[in-house]
Write a structure and sequence with these properties.
By secondary structure, the protein is α+β, with helices and mostly antiparallel strands. Helices cover about 40% and strands about 10% of the residues. The chain has nine helices and four strands. The longest helix is centred in the N-terminal third of the chain and has 14 residues, at about 35-45.
Length: about 210
């Protein structure tokens, strides 16, 4: 199986996006079953555990990524200023992530303020939120949920890996810590509000009508 491991390593290291199990099986013309591949992937993950890169399973498949402990050193070569998320963005995204599927009205009821269409549009443009259906109620409001891209960017394989909530209503705090640890935290996000701290006062309700 040494050759198979070399093939897997080469394919994963050269891939520009996570590789799904069906793609990995294609490398061997379907000769290896998924349990066999998982055993090999676990072996590779163990062999790379103390190296600069680590093999990780995310929602879209398997990928190599830099070890979080090395972020401080890598930033010296590729300096990027992590964005500081506005409270409105963080709370809205956290509510969707932990309570999905939810409507815009649900989010407004929980936060106590109006959720602007532009904020939701930015989350959708980032590929982190999508409409998954409509609630059978007056107006059939859209049901919002997080996407596979959201999980990939945070380095998660499923929603079950979201940090556990220590107290009800602290979704924003839990997600804030997760974002600060993820590769996505150093990316230039379209909804980042430079200079706006997470502890800023909640935005005031506007006159915009909810959907």
């Amino acid at each position: 199986m040494l050759d198979a491991k070399r093939v897997l390593e080469a394919a994963l290291l050269c891939a520009d996006q996570p590789m799904q199990m069906r793609d990995l099986r294609t490398l061997f013309d379907q000769a290896l079953e998924e349990p066999q591949l998982r055993d090999l992937l676990d072996e590779i993950r163990g062999e790379w555990a103390e190296r600069g890169l680590q093999l990780t399973e995310v929602a879209s498949g398997w990928r190599f990524q830099s070890h979080p402990d090395l972020a401080h050193y890598l930033e010296k070569v590729h300096p990027e200023k992590p964005p500081r998320y506005s409270r409105a963005v963080l709370e809205t995204l956290a509510i969707i992530a932990y309570r999905q599927p939810v409507t815009r009205g649900d989010i407004e009821e929980i936060r106590g303020v109006t959720v602007h269409s532009q904020l939701l549009r930015q989350l959708e443009d980032r590929g982190w939120v999508e409409t998954v259906g409509h609630r059978e109620s007056v107006g059939r409001p859209a049901l919002l949920a997080t996407t596979r891209q959201f999980l990939d960017d945070l380095g998660l394989a499923s929603l079950k890996e979201l940090p556990a909530l220590t107290t009800p209503g602290n979704e924003g705090e839990a997600l804030s810590q997760l974002l600060s640890d993820a590769d996505a935290a150093s990316a230039e996000l379209p909804f980042a509000d430079p200079g706006v701290a997470l502890a800023d006062p909640a935005v005031s309700p506007s006159t915009e009508n909810p959907v």
